[in-house]
Write a structure and sequence with these properties.
4 domains, Rossmann fold, 436 residues, Helicase, Ruva Protein, domain 3, Zinc Finger, Delta Prime, domain 3
Length: 436
């Protein structure tokens, strides 16, 4: 049973929490941004409002509202809500939650929502422990991750959940969140701070779509402004009713950001884009510089290596098939070695990919074939190419086995009837692709 002392203690804990934690939205109407994912009329918004949610994986950079959205759902649902952090929870904890969910459903018919923050940190065995409970709807899973779930979360768990991608917040969204924090009398700064317009713009720019970063900067700037106002009062000056925060204080509050790279914000995407475009432009110096920015910013080495794996086929392809092997080797090195030594392997691969001849012919070929499939129903497989292990296959036309012919080549139809003569792969005039 709670008493007044419990309530007072809770109030003290809440008051001591960071501004970013205090300003978390409490309802779906307070949730700012992510209109494509949870805006009015979306499937997810409707499911939240009618309490008919299925399992979700919330994927996106830090500060985009994954944890806040999960807690909003927790506050609106009639189900029992349990929260685990993948950082310190183990298989035993998962099994205990599932057992309690089973008993709860059996005894009073109440469902359980399980929120797992940083679910990508769960091992395969921990994720496997969830499978049957999620499949049987014993628990409704809400997982949050900053990593691509299609790489970091087990495929069976992905197939039983809906992946919802949250993107960096727009500048107007960050502005709304900051203005709420400035004026909120209970959870925010209650009008005790005034941001000059240039200071507000600076916070928004530096946040890079990260609401948590914006609120943290605002809180630190407010503390600096209040401390300086107190010094003025102690020196016999006049303390104004509110503290004014200008661009100079914002610059001091963010002075520790020596490297302009935030692996969870806009700079993350800009630097990665510059890295890829430098390799595509065959500039090893640019590629190494942008790689260094990611290394210094603490980027996940596997993320960098995955982008190089894609690049090796998308931008080099048949012009140098060895590039894919180099990129794959770099990924395995990043996976098994990690920072700081993996920087050497990644630099090796980045320089190789930058200097390699370029061709996107294979990439264009698959996309054109997929476009044809989207525009028309799948064409029938020609009879001479069909599997022969079925009744009636003796009547199929003969298949010409290429190895029975000179140079293992034979002129026969391989495309469906409706696409005869179609060219998807158009090699560039680069050796060895030109000879392919």
């Amino acid at each position: 049973m709670r008493d007044l002392f419990d309530d007072a203690a809770e109030d003290r804990l809440e008051g001591a929490a960071p501004l970013a934690a205090r300003m978390r939205p409490r309802t779906i109407d307070e949730f700012v941004g992510q209109h494509a994912a949870v805006g009015p009329g979306t499937v997810l918004r409707t499911a939240i409002e009618i309490d008919a949610l299925s399992s979700l994986i919330l994927y996106g950079p830090a500060g985009t509202g994954k944890t806040s959205l999960a807690r909003v759902i927790g506050g609106m649902t009639k189900a029992h809500v349990t929260e685990l952090s993948a950082v310190n929870a183990g298989v035993k904890d998962v099994r205990q939650v599932i057992e309690e969910a089973h008993d709860r459903l059996k005894m009073n018919g109440r469902r359980t929502v399980l929120f797992i923050d940083e679910i990508h940190r769960f091992s395969k065995s921990q994720q496997d422990a969830l499978l049957h409970a999620v499949e049987d709807r014993l628990v409704v899973l809400i997982g949050a991750t900053t990593e691509n779930p299609f790489f970091e979360v087990n495929a069976p768990l992905i197939s039983r959940s809906r992946v919802v991608e949250l993107t960096p917040l727009a500048d107007d969204d960050i502005r709304t969140i900051l203005e709420r924090a400035l004026t909120d009398e209970v959870r925010g700064l209650g009008g005790s701070v005034v941001l000059e317009p240039e200071a507000l713009d600076s916070i928004i720019m530096l946040a890079g779509g990260d609401a948590r970063a914006a609120l943290t900067t605002l809180e630190l700037a407010a503390q600096i402004a209040h401390a300086e106002a107190t010094k003025v009062q102690g020196a016999g000056g006049i303390t104004p009713g509110v503290s004014v925060v200008g661009s100079d204080i914002i610059a001091r509050a963010t002075a520790l950001r020596a490297v302009p790279y935030d692996k969870a914000g806009d700079a993350h995407y800009d630097v990665v884009s510059a890295f890829i475009k430098s390799m595509r432009g065959s500039d090893p110096d640019g590629a190494v510089y942008w790689l260094a920015r990611m290394v210094a910013g603490g980027e996940d080495p596997k993320f960098i290596a995955r982008r190089m794996l894609i690049f090796a086929s998308e931008d080099i392809g048949m012009a140098d098939s060895q590039a894919l092997l180099i990129a794959h080797a770099a990924f395995k090195a990043a996976e098994s070695i990690g920072w700081p030594e993996a920087r050497i392997n990644l630099a090796h691969a980045a320089v190789y990919l930058a200097l390699a001849p370029k061709s996107n012919a294979a990439y264009l070929a698959i996309d054109e074939a997929l476009q044809d499939l989207r525009e028309a129903a799948g064409e029938r497989v020609p009879d001479h190419l069909r599997d022969r292990h079925r009744p009636g296959s003796d009547e199929y036309p003969a298949y010409l086995y290429p190895h029975d012919f000179p140079d293992a080549q034979v002129d026969q139809q391989y495309l469906p009837d409706g696409l005869v003569g179609k060219r998807y792969y158009r090699p560039r005039p680069l050796a060895p692709e030109a000879d392919a």
